[in-house]
Specification:
With 130 residues, this protein is an alpha/beta fold. The chain has 7 helices and 5 strands; from the N terminus they run H-E-H-H-E-H-E-H-E-H-H-E.
Length: 130
């Protein structure tokens, strides 16, 4: 499903709920990040289990996130800025991929959705919200 505006979100989520999908992966993008509260409201109201790319969705009430560690990405940006400021040419610096991923689980949301989160997932999570 795609949504490119706030007005399209409710229709997309209603279609997903009526189709009885087992879950949803919400990719991080500017629209979904800006409309985080609306996305979260729809996933919980329509009882659509969703996994997000960044933990802020889980802190806001989403079920689960797994994705690159945002603090680690910012740390690497600072290192690169320092290297450029000390004279290195930006085009000579290697392209880095995220080296660390974070997982967060919201047990309160899991309970609301009627989902039992396996202990193996909870043990691997970097953050468990109860």
């Amino acid at each position: 499903m795609q949504a490119s505006a706030d007005a399209e979100l409710e229709n997309a989520f209603t279609i997903l709920a009526e189709a009885h999908f087992g879950g949803l992966v919400v990719a991080s993008n500017p629209l979904f990040n800006n409309l985080r509260d609306h996305v979260l409201k729809l996933t919980v109201a329509l009882k659509v289990p969703a996994v997000y790319e960044i933990r802020q969705f889980v802190v806001g009430g989403g079920l689960m996130s797994y994705g690159p560690s945002v603090p680690e990405i910012y740390r690497q940006i600072a290192i690169y800025a320092g290297r450029v400021l000390t004279g290195e040419t930006a085009s000579d610096l290697p392209v880095l991929q995220p080296a660390k991923c974070d997982m967060a689980v919201n047990l309160k949301t899991a309970k609301t959705l009627g989902i039992d989160v396996p202990m193996s997932i909870l043990l691997r999570a970097d953050e468990v919200i109860e």
